[in-house]
Amino acid sequence: MSALDNIRNFAIIAHIDHGKSTIADRIIQLCGGLTEREMKEQVLDSMDIERERGITIKAQTVKLKYKSKDGKDYILNIIDTPGHVDFSYEVSRSLYACEGSILIVDSTQGVEAQTLANVYQALDINHEIIPILNKIDLPASDLERTRKQIEDVIGIETSNSVPCSGKTGEGIREILEQIISVLPSPKGDKNQKLKCLLVDSWYDSYLGVIILVRVINGKIKKNMKIKMMSSDRDYNVEKVGVFTPKPIDIEELNSGEIGFIITGIKNLSETKVGDTICETSNPITEALPGFKPSKPVVFCGLFPVDSSEYQKLKDGLAKLKLNDASFSYDPESSSALGLGFRCGFLGLLHLEIITERLEREFDINLLTTTPGVVYKVHLNNGKIIDLQNPSNLPDPTLIKMIEEPWIKATIISPDQYLGSIMKLCQGKRGIQKNLNYSGNRAVISYEIPLNEVVFDFNDRLKSMTSGYASFDYEIIGHKEGELVKLGILVNSEPVDALAMMVHKDFAQSVGKEVCEKLKDLIPRHNFMIPIQAAIGGKIIARETIKGFKKDVLTKIHGGGAMDRKRKLLEKQKKGKAKSKQFGRVEIPQEAFIGVLKINKER
User: Fold this and answer.
1) Which of 264, 304, 377, 412 could tie 309 with a disulfide, CB 3.0–4.6 Å?
2) 187's torsion region: left (phi>0), alpha (psi -120 to 50) or beta?
């Protein structure tokens, strides 16, 4: 078995779409991990949805053998990480399993916001970083400008940077040589007690839960009894293996190595990411510093369009939960939409991907309610409630204050768009914290309430900057806000699925917009329907849908006609009042979708 000096564990970090999966493909090809016939684009992106959108969602790992220019044999363990802000928890775990990182920057676009976030995570845990300047085959590539940006914006040396092209394969061997000479080899002792980091886990329908581990000290082998330190439960190792990128069974994993084990666990919740694994017969006393479990920050209701698909939706959610520990769901019922689930996500892309997978893999037509965030409601009696669904807000007289989550947003953009970006952030109640320049690129940081960003911020930012701006955020905590629950009443009945939390200053305009939209979308009935927006008992906006009128007077002629007409109209009026009292207003699904669109347009 190779000594620790010949092993290099490294992560690939980059902004979304800067070419890290393509470079991983070229490295696998050069090291002979797969034959030409087995190679396909983005080998490490296993989900169809990852391929189609060109993004990485799950971190993937691969072990390769490489012979350097001086003839020595090395083992390279690569972890390809996601680049999107919603999946940054995947990145933090992957970085912990490595000693160094290669940072890929698109030499035509330069440094982007997500690049910053991931690099700072790597620097926090003392990673050695090699900058890679990708896409040098494109005419717009500007190496000098990109190097200067990396030094100015990130603040790392670029003297050891490697220009390359993931498309043509140019510079790939230079990257590998740089990895061997610059990145440190792992530290550890295979003769000490077993100490292992649980990096990731996912569910396989044939094998049960597959656990990705990084061995720190000792070795892990088949038929060994191991203990998960957070739950204090024992398991038997049935299989040990590595990905090359095909899974290959081996006898043992030594210190410094990354591989997978299978222990017959059937439930993903038993494998906590960041947990420490040790040997049952020879346990260690001190666990590794674990990761904070990822908490959902965006919540919304998922309802089947056809109520007969409820069971199908329930089964689909249970299957997706097997492979995604960061996603949560609880049953919920709504008088307007029937039975469904309240689901928690890491961000809007996460929400989009889960709903798309449900529709695609399980063939379910879904209706999604307005996404919202988790508010902390402080009551007068000292209790604090986490509020996910605005319709569950307690009586306003019991509430002392409501806190909402805030984020620190970093936006990098060409400076000609600066004015419109500032206007957008201020319109979202943002507070400017910082503004720096690198050449003609501005790096702006703002503190903004998450509720304002969660819906359409990224889309609007991209459209107003022709796609040139990039955006990244981290949650910084909760702050008190002047928030109110905006309730929508149709025919004096509250519609819980349309309730939303809004800032007091925006309540009137949002209420007016929703009422106007619903007036257009709810069909006319035989009676008049009032649509109202209310805060508590106070109505702040109203629209009225007029009822159908039947002309009951056409056949009346001759003497005493006025009296007979008046009697008939009185009778009709009573009938309409009665039908309004007992009639049910059917709210079509287009109306809910229309209200969602209002939020997007805002």
Assistant:
1) 304
2) beta
